[in-house]
Each structure stands twice: as C-alpha cells, then as structure tokens.
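[recover] target loaded
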C-alpha cells in the first residue's frame, strides 16, 4: 500500500498508476562497450528476456541480438557479449516466466 501527500495530509491509495510505463528497458551508450551482463530492476528471476538492437534516435528495432534469462537479483548474464558502439542502443524485453 502506498501513501501520497495532498493538501489534507497523507492518505492511503489502494493503487498508484504511473503516467507512462515502457514494456522494455532501454540501454544507450556514449562510449564503445562490451556488455556481458546487465541489471533489470523489478523483473522476476527466471523470466526470459529478448535483447534487440535499436536505432538510437527512432527506437526502431533493428534485429535480435540475444535471448537470456533473468537471474538472481535481476541480473542478466548474456550467452555471448554484445559489442555496442558509441551512440548505439539496445532494448531488453522481458517476458513472463
């Protein structure tokens, strides 16, 4: 249960909805990187994840890079490292386990 502040003080809310929720996680890089693992906050361990290269400016998917499974603590260990150049990006799309 969450509480929020209003002019009358704290009140309990049964549900709080975000204004926007992306169904994926976006990773953008200013420098060249070799990515062996990454963290997904709030994703259940055991969930499958698809990793796609995207156009960094438009967000358009450009191809599947890898599939993996979320491990303990939300960490995703990739079967093969992903090489990401400066200015490039990828998204991780979790599915339900």
């Amino acid at each position: 249960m969450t509480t929020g502040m209003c002019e009358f003080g704290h009140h309990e809310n049964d549900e709080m909805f975000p204004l926007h929720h992306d169904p994926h996680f976006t990773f953008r890089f200013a420098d060249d990187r070799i990515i062996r693992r990454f963290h997904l906050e709030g994703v259940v361990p055991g969930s499958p994840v698809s990793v796609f290269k995207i156009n960094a400016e438009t967000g358009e998917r450009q191809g599947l890079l890898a599939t993996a499974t979320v491990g303990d603590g939300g960490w995703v260990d990739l079967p093969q490292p992903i090489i990401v150049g400066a200015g490039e990006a990828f998204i991780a799309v979790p599915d339900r386990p």
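[recover] notes: Confidence is low (pLDDT under 50) at residues 1-6.
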